[in-house]
Amino acid sequence: MKRFIVAVLAAFSFVYAMGLGNRSAQNMKKLMNAEFAISEFYVDSVNGEKLVEDAIRGMLDKLDPHSSYTTADETRELQQPLQGKFSGIGISFNMKQDTLYVISLIAGGPSERVGMLPGDRIVTVNDSVVAGVKMTTNDIRKRLMGPKGTLVNVGVKRPGEKDMIHFGITRDEIPIYSVDAAYMADPKTGYIRISRFAESTGEEFAEAFNKLKKKGMTQLILDLSDNGGGYLNTAVELANTFLRAGETIVYTEGNRSPRYDAVANGKGGYKDGKLVVLVNQYSASASEILAGAVQDWDRGVVVGRRTFGKGLVQRPFTFEDGSMMRLTTARYYTPSGRCIQKPYKMGEKADYAKDVYNRYKDGELQHADSIHVADSLKYTTLKNERIIYGGGGIIPDVFVPIDTTEYSDYYGKLNTKGVFIQYTLGYIDKNRDSLKAKYKDVNEFDAGFKVSDEMIQDLISQGEKAGVKYNEEQYKISKNVIDYILKSLVARDVFDQEAFTIIYNKRNDLLKEGLRVINDDKLYNSLLKSTE
């Protein structure tokens, strides 16, 4: 109770400091009186601290999908991917109504490697139910974290999937890097992949960019696919690399938040060369700010699929105990005036979470003409007056459909059961020294290493032990992708995450299209010309 009174008094001070007047003060008094009455007169004993937290969550649940409350432990968990390193399964999560929601995945981490996705609900951990049992975040964290190399079995409910998905995840130390790869995709094209916008991203990007310039880079492909965002300031810093002095990068505005413009200072080091930005349905927030600025100023070509559409600004309110409320206070707008945020209904977060699945079901991820936009949301770019559209997310200049032709249930089960990871760990344990001796770098590895029939048979056996029954017909459908995943994972464990990206990018349709666009001067220039 004492803690609650302190919190309310602090809230009163905040109310008056913000000049919100008597009405808000009366509401705060009403809330305090309700908590006091429950604590003092309710028939059973109650946890006053939890009452307050539930009240905060209850209020936020009636608002937009991105306003949220996190306890002190949850706050630290969410901030770790942007600030440091930790070991575990490599996810950021939040609790809502006793359900653990996966917020984001650490690029290259154990959970991403087995196929977990943002929006998944973790239901079981090592056969213990963690959903709907009022388990604390610390209890769940203890179950998910553990010594490096140990296995944790996780049961996940995914929106749109009828049955629960089971993952076998090998715990690992999670390196927190935001630039996953930087290499020459061809003799003149540099490729840089950014997985998140963290504190160190600007410095990492500058180092990668300068490295590629020394290797002869004259044009750049920036890969923001699957990048869920991060710090706004970092996105602004990177956008400044490409834009000229005085050009708006993004602006924010809300009912009680006056318009604020972030503007390029003209000191960027790549304002003229050809630029392609790769995005997909999981590119969100800061990624959309950068892609939108590039598109609005006709600075480069955006290639991929419509981005997520997360354009709400959260202001953090930190409480004395380290817990935090992230309250939406404004919206992000691209320089042309497009609102990045996709439509939502207040308080209906469940439907909002299914949006990407609904896009797949409706055919948007497979067909460009399935993206429905209203004429009222038509805008034009700021230099060449090309037609672009608002309505949520950034619609690319060049659409790349998602490829499902090599997907099979057999492949999916191998992936979700963690069989690829388990097999690769054993293979590397036996062959690491010989592989390092045989291949000096990833290029030699790419040219010389082949997935053998013996490796496939061992993988099949590993799958059988994990309960994945071999299906020859489905294996033939997925053979190529299975080979590439094995080869990519071996490269990662022999070399590093960049090696994984280099190998796997051989079959990356977004990159293939990006290279086609950037190497065809006529096509590249035509995409940036007025469509009127």
Give a summary of the structure in a few sentences.
The chain is built from 19 helices and 21 strands. By secondary structure, the chain is an alpha+beta fold. Strands 3, 4, 5, 6, 7 and 8 form a 6-stranded antiparallel β-sheet that branches.
Total beta strand runs:
21
| Secondary structure tally, helices | 19
Q: Give the radius of gyration.
A: 25 Å
The end-to-end span amounts to 65 Å
Number of domains: 4
CATH homology superfamily of the largest domain:
2-enoyl-CoA Hydratase, Chain A, domain 1
Which architecture of the largest domain does the CATH hierarchy give at level 2?
Answer: Alpha-Beta Complex
**What does the main sheet amount to?**
6 strands, antiparallel
Shape: globular
CATH class of the largest domain: Alpha Beta
Level of helix content?
A: 40-55%
- Mean of residue pLDDT values: 88
The low-pLDDT segments are: none
Q: Which structural category do the helix and sheet elements fall into?
A: alpha+beta
Percentage of residues in DSSP E strands: 15-25%
CATH topology of the largest domain: 2-enoyl-CoA Hydratase, Chain A, domain 1
Description of the structure:
By secondary structure, the protein is α+β, with helices and mostly antiparallel strands. The chain folds into 4 domains: 2-69, no CATH class; 85-174, Pdz3 Domain (Roll); 179-311 and 331-402, 2-enoyl-CoA Hydratase, Chain A, domain 1 (Alpha-Beta Complex), CATH 3.90.226; 409-495, no CATH class. Helix content is 41%, strand content 20%. The protein contains 19 helices and 21 strands. The strands form 5 sheets. Strands 3, 4, 5, 6, 7 and 8 form a 6-stranded antiparallel sheet that branches. It has a 6-stranded mixed sheet with strand order 10-11-12-15-16-21, with helices on both faces. β7 and β8 (165-170) form a beta hairpin. The longest helix has 23 residues, at 472-494. It is globular, with a radius of gyration of 25 Å. The N and C termini lie far apart (65 Å). The mean pLDDT is 88.
